[in-house]
Amino acid sequence: MHAFRPPLPADPYGYVTQIDGFLPVRAAAELVLREAVARARAVASDIDVSTHLIRGSAARGLLGEAPAARLLVVGSHGRSGLRGLLAGSVAIHVATHASSPVVVIRPTVGACVDGSASRSVARVVVGVDRTPSCTPAIGFAFQAAWQRGIPLTAVHAWTPDPPADFEAVSGPSVMAELFGNRAVEKALARWRDEFPCLPVVTRRVRGDPTQTLITESRGAALIVVGSRGRGHILGTVLGSVSQNVLQHAHCPIAIVQHGGRADAEPPTWIHQGMVS
């Protein structure tokens, strides 16, 4: 799918006619689609590929396709900083409003300086917290790992409970860790039963959830985070974790809304042995 914006109407003196400006822009847009189809067929020649050329906003067009889509895939310019993430970004707008899961793929920046990416095992990473909103993301991650034939790493980052009184006495860290462990095992139980042959590694880390997920994204095939679907990404943990992961992750990021299409039963082809 490709969106293009027609040129503005001609000025009163007729220096540029509207039709003269429209045809080259549309031809360029059609060329973009043809090149995209050629690329897709070069990667997977046996998959049906269709095209859709629309006039207007790319974000609006993609969101219009979301209700009937299993997955939306968008690119990103990979600009650093909050301004680069939010200002005029189709990816962030689609990811925060689409009813279907969205995968954002940024430009590849190459191997890490310390070589950690090259030593990492290809895997799908999913963030797990203690709220129901991460359930669809976990299911999506299990399906993605099974489809690719690679392991799944479930990550839960925890910190001691906040102070419960004015003397800033935090709750016992052992209890926070215990509750976190129970939440992780409960969240994974259903999907372990559905995918009994899938290798699953759980990582429970005391520390910042954002930095933990960003670190785990090195060398990963995909990192999956959840969204509460309230008009902005809230992630699988409270605060701006998903926003920061989307900005700094070293691999493609899947954003799965709570209550969206991922809550439905897995696609039939997931259980028919298709692996890509």
Explained architecture:
The protein is of the alpha/beta class and 276 residues long. The protein has two domains: 1-56, no CATH class; 116-272, Rossmann fold (3-Layer(aba) Sandwich), CATH 3.40.50. It is built from nine helices and nine strands. The chain has helices at 18-43, 58-65, 81-86, 90-97, 116-119, 135-148, 173-194, 209-216, 241-248; strands at 2-4, 53-55, 72-75, 102-105, 124-127, 152-158, 200-206, 222-227, 253-257. Helix 2 packs parallel to helix 4 (90-97) and helix 6 (135-148) packs across helix 7. The two termini are 22 Å apart.
How would you briefly describe this protein structure?
38% of the residues lie in helices and 16% in strands.
Count of DSSP helices?
9
Instruction: Show unreliable segments.
Output: 82-88, 111-119, 230-239, 263-276
**Proper CATH architecture of the largest domain:** 3-Layer(aba) Sandwich
**Which CATH class of the largest domain applies here?**
Alpha Beta
**Number of DSSP-assigned strands:** 9
Q: What's the order of the H and E elements? A: EHEHEHHEHEHEHEHEHE
- Nearest-angstrom radius of gyration? 22 Å
CATH topology of the largest domain: Rossmann fold
Using the alpha-carbon principal axes, give the shape: elongated
What count of domains describes the coordinates? 2
Q: What structural class do helix, strand and pairing data support?
A: alpha/beta
Q: Quick check: average pLDDT? A: 76
Largest sheet data: 7 strands, mixed
Separation, N- and C-terminal Cα atoms: 22 Å
